[in-house]
Design brief:
TATA-Binding Protein, about 10% strand, five-stranded antiparallel sheet, Endonuclease Iii, domain 2, two-stranded antiparallel sheet, alpha+beta, Endonuclease III, domain 1
Amino acid sequence: MPEIILSHNQQFSLDQTLGCGQVFRWDRTGNGWWYGVVGERVIRIRKDGSRLIFKGAPSSLIIKYFSLDLDLRPILTSIDQDPFIHAAINQCTGLRLIRQPKWECLVSYICSTNSNIPMIRRRIATIAQQFGKEITFEEKTYFSFPDPFAISCSGGYAISDCKLGYRTPYVLDTACKIADVRKWEDTITALPYEDARRQLMKLPGVGPKAADCILLFAFQKYEAFPVDVWIRRIMQHNYIKTLSTSSALTTKEYETIRRFAKSHFGEYCGYAQEYLYAARER
């Protein structure tokens, strides 16, 4: 099988990267292999020391998808601004942000509202099975993620079978609004972060957190700082003592947190967010 030899200073943890909750279509087997669907490919990959061994994709896709062309050292140095984030960086050495397929990431985070990771994974798998193309890999059947046209042309009946709950019309309406997915991707990519954020939040079911997740994970706008209950708790305990301890995260609090994060961690504050989130239970 093909392999990539990681350089001496090319920090990368496959397990940290795929296991931290940023993607939903990867599974790890007991012998250390990860299987995932990326676009219309099924990829099998594992890390053995400095060797990255894989099947199902060219090395160029592996490098791009896992951001292996990005020098992680100056990014981590730039966000290493206090003892708390310093500890998180040390605990999650080699965690990288994946460059996710943009349309799939959009739908994934529409489906993520008020949900845990197992539920999100089930919803995405169901959408793929209902509307995607079959892919046979190592004598097993997988499904690609469908484009907007495949979902919108199905009407409400087929998507209702995916059991998305109140998110059903959000996914269907969003698929109908994005007739030309490549044009939509190019438009959001070209916009500055704040403008891109406003555009995304015009789509059904896309609130502040979903917009920031999509911009961070799919569009590499690293100044995005998604705030959920975990991040809010971390920021309240360690950075912004004046935050409310009430159960509901208000729009004002969300803005306070993300603007503080940009000021404190800098232009790569999205990387700080992922390290803080990944280290939260360790």
